[in-house]
Structures are given as structure tokens and as C-alpha cells.
Amino acid sequence: MNRITPQPGIMDIALYQGGASHVAGVENVIKLSSNENPFGPSPKAIEAVRNAAATLHRYPSTDHASLRAAIADVHGLDPDRIICGVGSDEIITFLCQAYAGPGDEVIHTEHGFAMYRISALAAGATPVEVAERDRVVDVDAILAGCTERTRLVFIANPANPTGTMIGEAEVARLADNLPDQTILVLDGAYAEYVEGFDAGRAIIDARENVVMTRTFSKLYGLGGMRVGWGYGSREIIDVLNRVRGPFNLSTPALAAAEAAIRDFDYVEYCRAENTKWRAWLAEALAEQGVPSDTSCANFILARFGSPDEAEACDAHLQSRGLIVRRVAGYKLPDALRITIGGEEACRRVAAAVAEFK
Ligand code: PMP
């Protein structure tokens, strides 16, 4: 008898299916399925990676002091309340490892980002899904879903794959009404796309039970480097640092992130292009009878009449070299999530949808 079995819950985790960047037999493919920055990283980040080559024989910084100082400087935060991880995925993992185990519950919302459930299961905890209201996070449903076993509540603001947001008053109401033993995690992966948005920083500063996660994978164009960070109380950050490996981030990754966060002009350019072409694409698709919710992020969730229509349009877009994301796994089978590329990508998507229609 085979006695080598994984922990309970592990086999409930589906293997990741996305990530393709080629379509057999099609040229000039544009990948619009992972919410990446179409312009790539800041040239200063690329230069920093080149310079990092000189010290590749050394282990990287273990305390990430330089990157934390840069993040603290740019955002006006206390560097001792920041932790850096291998993408914000790793911060989500640390939170589940440190705070949720067998018998504990981890709340995510109906269309919430898949890593919340995966990390909860990997930690041996029980993921609990609560309903959204018209593809928007519903604070009352979350509060109704809490029990004395709820250890973590994850919401992304803006959310993926819907692109929707809830306001600061709603987030504060959620934080203030959670059970005592529950941490609220505000996932700000797309926060940079919202001009002037503090991603819940004021809420965190006024409370002990709220944490923020952020990433360099989206607006900063460094998905391939895998750098994210978290911000919370000194106590929580101290706990998370205990489960963090000493050398979790590579020297080039640390250098790239530090250069990217200080290149304000580039950040501004990428944000402005995204805002412009997101509005353009949403309108172009709406004119063809394909509506989308108002998106605050770097993608839109285009909604078709039926799952069959979404599937057929997906196939058509692929035949035109456009890879977008079906969100069936997110319980939105009639929708396609389309990353906002630059001008060429948006014009090609609009033309291909027009052909399809
Ligand atoms: N949170 C949300 C809502 C996301 O969409 C993503 C990336 N798809 C992440 C977190 C993780 O990003 P990363 O690990 O690259 O920081």
C-alpha cells in the first residue's frame, strides 16, 4: 500500500493553466492574458539588473534593507513595517502559513484571486468563499461569512478579474467589524493604476488587524523578476519574517525593483497610457455590444451573451494572434479578461471583436 500521500487539501488545488505566449501557426502574437505591462520595465531597472551581474557569486541581501528603504521613501512608510517577497504571491503564502492552519478558515470572495484559496489549502486551512454583489466585493456578505475560526480575509482592491473597487469607508467598515482573531488583507496588486490611491494605508495605520500586499509585477513591469511586498503592524511583519527564507529574493530582483520604484516619469507614463487605452477599448467593445464593468486596473472584463459566445470569441481572438484570459475558473464563463496592451494591441482586439461580431 502506498503510504506516501500529501496533506489533506493539497489535491484540491488545480494546476495552473495560464501563461501561454504562443499560438501554433500564428505570427505577431500579443499576450494579453496575465495583466503584464506592455511597455516592459523602466530602462533604469534593466540597467540595474545588468549591474547586479557583478555580484552574482554572493548571496543576496537577507534583510532587503535597501529596497525597503526605497519603498518606505516613495510611499512615506516605516521601513520596519515592510516585508519583501517573491511576488505578492509569497506574501499571501506567508500570511496563510503563519496565521492559518488545520481547523482555521480563510475567506475569499466569489471572484477573488486564485492564490488566496491555493495558499489556504496549502497551509492546511479551509478556504471559505463568500458571494459578491454584481461582481463587486460585498462587505456584508464577508461579515456574515465570518466565524470564530476565521483567521484571514482576502480582498483585492482593485479586484482581479473584475477590475472593480470598493471605497475606503467600506474597507474601514469591514476592518472594524471583523472578529478579534481575524486579519484583513488588502491586496493592492493593481493599486498603482488608481491615481492618488493609498491602497488602504490610512486604514492600516489606524488599526492592528489590517495588512496590505503590493507588487512590482504590474505597473512596474517586473513580473519576470518576482518582487512583491507587504505592509502592516510591526508585530505582523515580525511574524511573517519568521517564515520567510533568508535569501528569498535574488540580487537582480532587488536591484530592479529599487530602480523601478524611483523612476517616477516612467510610472506616470505607463499609468497614463493604461488609463487612455482602457477607456478607448471599453468604449470600442461596448459599441459592438460587448459591455464591461468600469475597470480601475490594467484589464477589462468583457462580457458576452453566453459562455459559448465567450469561448467562440476567445478562439477567434487567438486565430488573430491575441491571447486573452477565459475566466471560467473564476465562475465568469461568459467573460474574457483582456489586459490593456498599448495602442496596437487595443486596436487589434477591437478589430478582431468587430470581425467576430
Ligand atoms: N494579487 C492579485 C489580485 C493578482 O492579480 C496577482 C497577479 N496576477 C497577484 C496578487 C500576484 O502577483 P505577483 O505574485 O506577481 O506579485
From TrEMBL:
Q: Does the keyword Amino-acid biosynthesis apply?
A: yes
Q: Which GO terms describe its biological process?
A: L-histidine biosynthetic process
Q: Name residues in a coiled coil.
A: none
Please name the CDD domains in this protein's record. AAT_like
- Molecular function GO terms recorded: histidinol-phosphate transaminase activity; pyridoxal phosphate binding
Instruction: Give the keywords, sorted.
Output: Amino-acid biosynthesis, Aminotransferase, Histidine biosynthesis, Pyridoxal phosphate, Transferase
- List the InterPro entries hit by this protein, alphabetically: Aminotransferase_I/II_large (IPR004839), HisP_aminotrans (IPR005861), HistidinolP_aminotransfase (IPR050106), PyrdxlP-dep_Trfase (IPR015424), PyrdxlP-dep_Trfase_major (IPR015421), PyrdxlP-dep_Trfase_small (IPR015422)
Assembly and interactions? Homodimer.
Describe the family membership recorded for this protein in Swiss-Prot or TrEMBL. Answer: Belongs to the class-II pyridoxal-phosphate-dependent aminotransferase family. Histidinol-phosphate aminotransferase subfamily.
**NCBIfam families cross-referenced by the UniProt entry:** hisC
Q: Supply the name of the protein.
A: Histidinol-phosphate aminotransferase
Q: Which gene encodes it?
A: hisC
